[in-house]
Design brief:
The complex is a heterotrimer of chains A (262), B (239) and C (250). With 239 residues, chain B is an alpha/beta fold. Chain B is built from six helices and nine strands. Chain C is mainly α and 250 residues long. Chain C contains eight helices and no strands. The chains are: A mainly alpha (262), B alpha/beta (239), C mainly alpha (250).
Chain lengths: 262, 239, 250
């Protein structure tokens, strides 16, 4: 008698010793397994984390040093006696996003490039469908970029004095931005890894996608600090961010199989 | 237990999101492999052309040929990892044809270019790949599998610390995880010592005896290994 | 969709040393037709159309060249995306994964790159004349730079994926489809972002009442000329590919 298949239904125990099948949809548990494996490997080797970490910390320090004078500068508001800071909060957030973009493209390539270079992608192809691979890798990259943003943003606010603004909008912009970044970086990494390209190819491919995303991020940054405004404007700005990321991820999921398989 | 209709042929493409059309993996699946005019070229260079053969359940087929004649390529095509330039490598299990993606749960694949994760231990590798196939291995099961390939006691070591022979043994443990009805072995005894070669022979014998009849396809140039198969195919380069 | 090439039937004489000149869309009639139309447009830009109100000097004449190029560079991308989609997803077994479709999408991208460069240069010249600086970051300029980066990245990927044609085809067609998202945002969303001021006199041109009859006499033919130029170059490029493919398979 054979083993009961792992399709939806109550989780059965098989007649074979020591083998238990799961009842979740197959691709979700496969993606989760891949995520767990990547996490375990990363905890052990710390390749991606150290790359991103070193980059982010040094960039933050450099930024702090370079903008110390800029922080204090004031420019006069026309027709009044008042002055306003030369470096407005929206500009500060813009620079934070540039930093996070570079951090993303430094560290998020590792997941795919490593698989291709060591040749373990073959074992994965034999073991799980392409869609689950994409989901697992995307989840890992999302976790990584969120972790980086979680550490870097408070530090950045400390260094540059960027205010929080309305907390909900701020949080939504951070989440939307990180999601888009992870989506872009993941699919570009998959492409560049398969093309056996160097880091230069990775950057070249990611640039057009990030360029547009940065324009949207700038717009969202302005919205965060624009003070009282119609809710529609906020929805449009934040919605733009999320829609870009989600659309990108959707198209990536649909076409990933063509990249992954030979 | 009804096996659902197997997947569509070429129209489904590699972009499939999930394994929807699984034929149940059971001990007594009866598999067969058919090569119908298989040919492949890389760019302008033709590797081989017009390979025709049929391997039935319980049979062992050996593919030989000089270096560069495309033995590994033929195995990759059979595994569904590569689309052939001409012809088709058809696999059916219990009479149902399986497309390139659907056949992979039924395969055990060992090859020089197969690599397992060096930053994980042997046991962690097996656990991971077992999880991907919907299995969870108990501790006893793990020990049994590692012992079966001669890696008893080495499960806790990182694969980066393994010798090349040990890595080859781990590949067999990986390939045999799910009792595949089709074994594809490319250079089966590469890096293995005498004990290892004996293990491989046992694996092939067990595959033959498998309920329903397992298929084994070997790609090799070793004369001793050629003896292991009753079906022999020789690939000539450039034809 | 390739046009059929009608070759005259082989005569009894020994095979000709040079191939027959192609009929159809690559043929000489087309070449001369597009050339003459373009000559008319150039003549018209300088002699038929009069100076526009509100523009510095003669700078408005660049509209006849800049706008068609910019529009065509976006259209070229969507043409390439359509071929890429057919390549990957066509339900017709002959068309799916047919390398000719990939070659067509590559041809469209190359031409799109060309037109994008032209649009950027002409736009920058215009900005220099009209507003003094050769570059301002207004939304349309951002859009054209974004497209330029995209085309360049595509060409980089195409050269990097180069060893096997079908692998290169898969990677590049997927890239085109993925970059549909940034392109759609560039073409339709970025120009509408309120936060960025726009220097572009786009709304003026879009309303037909604002342009005199003389302008229309040159503007519409110039659009036609550039579109025909694109089609003709596209067919030439595809023909080049087919000749190359024949050569490679020998």
């Amino acid at each position: 008698m054979g083993r009961v298949a792992d399709t939806a239904g109550a989780g059965p125990v098989s007649a074979q010793a020591g083998v238990v099948t799961s009842s979740r949809p197959a691709w979700l548990s496969e993606a989760a397994a891949l995520f767990a494996k990547d996490l375990r490997a990363e905890m052990r080797t710390k390749v991606a984390i150290s790359a991103i970490g070193v980059f982010t910390l040094s960039a933050l320090l450099l930024l702090g040093l370079a903008t110390a004078a800029l922080k204090e500068a004031q420019i006069p508001i026309p027709d009044t006696d008042l002055t306003r800071p030369a470096w407005d909060p929206a500009g500060k957030m813009a620079l934070l996003w540039v930093l996070l973009c570079f951090a993303a493209f430094t560290g998020l390539a590792h997941s795919f490039v490593h698989e291709e270079e060591t040749g373990t992608s073959l074992a994965l192809r034999l073991s799980m469908p392409a869609g689950a691979v994409y989901a697992g890798k995307l989840a890992f990259n999302l976790a990584l970029i969120f972790a980086v943003a979680l550490v870097a943003t408070p530090l950045y606010m400390l260094i540059t004095g960027m205010p929080l603004g309305p907390p909900l909008v701020f949080l939504l912009v951070m989440i939307g931005g990180c999601t888009g970044l992870a989506g872009a970086a993941t699919i570009v990494a998959a492409l560049a890894a398969k093309a056996r390209g160097t880091g230069a190819l990775y950057s070249a491919l990611g640039l057009p996608i990030l360029f547009v995303f940065l324009a949207l991020l700038l717009n969202a940054a302005k919205t965060v600090y624009a003070g009282p405004q119609p809710a529609l404007d906020v929805v449009k700005a934040v919605g733009g961010l999320f829609s870009y990321g989600i659309l990108l991820i959707t198209v990536s999921a649909l076409t990933f199989g063509f990249i992954w398989e030979d | 237990m009804p096996a659902r209709q197997a997947g569509k042929t070429s129209a489904s493409g590699p972009g499939r999101w999930y394994n929807s059309d699984k034929v149940q993996r059971e001990d007594h699946n009866e598999a067969s492999v058919a090569w119908e005019g298989v040919g492949h070229r890389f760019g302008a260079r033709s590797v081989f052309s017009d390979v025709c053969a049929q391997v039935e359940a319980g049979q062992v087929c050996v593919v030989t040929g000089p270096n560069g004649s495309g033995k590994s390529t033929l195995l990759r095509i059979t595994a569904g990892l590569l689309q052939p330039s001409a012809g088709a490598a058809r696999i059916s299990v219990n009479g149902q044809p399986l497309d390139a993606v659907a056949r992979r749960p039924h395969l055990g694949y060992v090859a020089p270019d197969l690599t397992l994760y060096r930053e994980l231990t042997g046991a962690e590798n097996l656990q991971f790949f077992a999880r991907l196939r919907g299995m969870t291995l108990s501790r006893d099961d793990l020990i049994a599998r590692l012992s079966a390939v001669g890696l008893r006691g080495r499960g806790r070591d990182l694969v980066s610390a393994y010798s090349s022979g040990m890595r080859q043994r781990l590949k067999y443990a990986f390939a045999l995880l799910d009792q595949p009805s089709i074994l594809l072995l490319d250079e089966p005894t590469a890096n293995l010592d005498v004990d290892g070669a004996a293990m491989v022979e046992q694996v092939i014998a067990a595959q033959r005896r498998r309920a329903g009849g397992g298929v084994t396809i070997i790609a090799t140039n070793e004369p001793r290994e050629v003896e292991w198969g009753e079906l022999r195919i020789r690939l000539e380069p450039g034809r | 969709m390739t046009t059929a090439q009608t070759q005259p039937p082989p005569t009894a004489s020994p095979p000709p040393s040079a191939p027959e000149p192609p009929a159809g869309i690559q043929g000489a009639a087309w070449k001369w037709g597009v050339g003459l139309l373009m000559c008319y447009v150039i003549y018209g830009a300088f002699f038929i159309a009069r100076n526009a109100v509100g523009f510095v000097g003669d700078s408005a004449r660049i509209i006849f060249f800049h706008v068609p190029c910019a529009v065509l560079s976006s259209i070229a991308y969507f043409v390439a995306a359509a071929y890429a989609g057919l390549y990957l997803f066509s339900s017709h077994p002959e068309k799916r994964f047919n390398l000719e479709l990939d070659a067509k999408s590559a041809a469209a991208m190359e031409l799109g790159f060309l037109f994008c460069i032209l649009a950027t240069i002409t736009g920058s010249l215009f900005a220099g004349m009209q507003w003094g600086t050769f570059w301002n970051w207004d939304p349309r300029e951002i859009s054209i730079v974004g497209m330029l980066l995209l085309y360049a990245a595509y060409l980089v990927l195409r050269s990097a994926g180069g060893e096997q044609p079908d692998k290169r085809a898969r990677l590049t067609t997927v890239y085109i489809l993925i970059t549909l998202i940034p392109t759609v945002f560039l073409v339709w969303v970025v120009p509408r972002i309120q936060a960025l001021q726009s220097l572009h006199p786009t709304s003026v041109l879009a309303n037909p009442k604002n342009t005199s009859a003389a302008y229309k006499e040159v503007l519409y033919p110039s659009f036609l000329a550039f579109i025909l130029l694109f089609v003709w170059l596209f067919q030439l490029r595809f023909r080049l590919y087919k000749l190359g493919a024949k050569d490679r398979s020998r």
